[in-house]
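Final report, Chapter 2: Outcomes

The project's central promise was a pipeline that accepts a single protein chain and returns its three-dimensional structure in a standardized token representation, suitable for archiving and comparison. That pipeline is now operational. To close this chapter, we reproduce one record exactly as it appears in the project archive, with the input sequence first and the structure output second.
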Amino acid sequence: MTEILLNEEIRGLLKKREFINVATCDFDHTPNVAPKFLLKVEDNCVYLVDYVIGRTWRNLKINARASLSTINIKDIVGYQLNGTVRIIEKGTQFKKLLKELNDKIVEFSTKRIIEGIRANRPHQHTELSFPDRVAIFKITIEEIVRIGPQGTLERKKIRS
């Protein structure tokens, strides 16, 4: 039985995010960090959408390790989520995830339009759209680092 690392606090933080930064590194140790659309969180996995198909995708093709970070600004507690990535670009699972992505895009765009109307400020770009080619990153979280407000670090690794 696999232990669930992503507790309710972390899940709650991620549910409030549409985008999250993902850090990768190539074999020459050149770092890269870029925002990716957060599709969903399921068990110990975070699904991200790469709509650029650039350096992050290239790095993950040769080095399947990634790090995500988020912060609970209310408590000033940060989290680093480290894991292994599987790139999903075709097949039945990909088609299912694309359907979920389309649903989430509609939800995101609708929320932005309503917020803009309520605030009496039109958004220049209200709808979120992606190019025809996207990749889904399934990140299996293997370690969580909790960064406390005084800089304390707590590491928790997953047990399979």
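Archive annotation: Residues 92-118 form the longest helix (27 residues).
This record, like all others produced under the grant, will remain available to the consortium after the project formally closes.
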